Amino acid sequence: MFFFLSKILWPLTQPLYLAGIFMVGGFLLLLLATGKREKRGMLTASKISLGLGVCVFFVFGAMPTGHNLLVILERQYPRTEITESTAPDGIIVLGGMFNGPLSRVHGQSIGTGAMERVVTFHNLARRYQHAPTKLIFSGSSARLTRDQNTEWTESDAAALYFEEAGFPLGRLIFESESRTTYENVIRSKDLAAPVTGKNWYLVTSAWHMPRAMSVFKKAGWTPQAYPVDYMTALSFRWRPDFALLANFTMTQMAIHEYIGWAAYYFTGKSASLLP
Length: 275
Hints:
10 helices; five-stranded parallel β-sheet; alpha/beta; 5 strands; 9% strand; Rossmann fold
């Protein structure tokens, strides 16, 4: 239920959609204004709606608001450097970088972004290939509907990626049922069966790490953070730059994390509310 609600309600939280809704609503109110009294009220409502649309567009499109929201997230967990004494007993990477259906159609692993996750995981896996290290790839499909008989999951695409790279698939554990970060954590924990005193490392995007770690803590397991896929240089910006597409994209990513984190907290899936 949580997964379906998140997919249905997610468009309503995207600033670009909100700006469009306010702008279109404002113009429609202008067109629908009829009669003297009604016209005055509709004109006022139209001005408010158009003003809100312009404000949303400026704050999240022209200003680096999304960038700064991501900086807050990416500063939370600096990378834990691996030394000889802290060599991993296990490594987990969270999905979010492969397009399973397209990978199946074209017969090759096709990425959708955040490829640094799997590249870093692969590098670590090769470094500790001959050590008794558990290597877990966790990811299914974020699609609302999926044909389980014909459509590939992220784990299927990941298996093809490692096969193409010549890495022995027998060294990997693929968790192919989870569709959300919460399910990633719970199912990975079941597979890992972590023991106190063992060094486990979590590989995921730096902006995703705080929410993921909060869920891990709630589940009673705290691996070492190994963030990758940074979107910022960890420094704030305050001047308008009018990089509209980049700013809206960053804002959508940040809002997804903050709302998801809050939703997890209020449903008992996360150990903390916000950073």
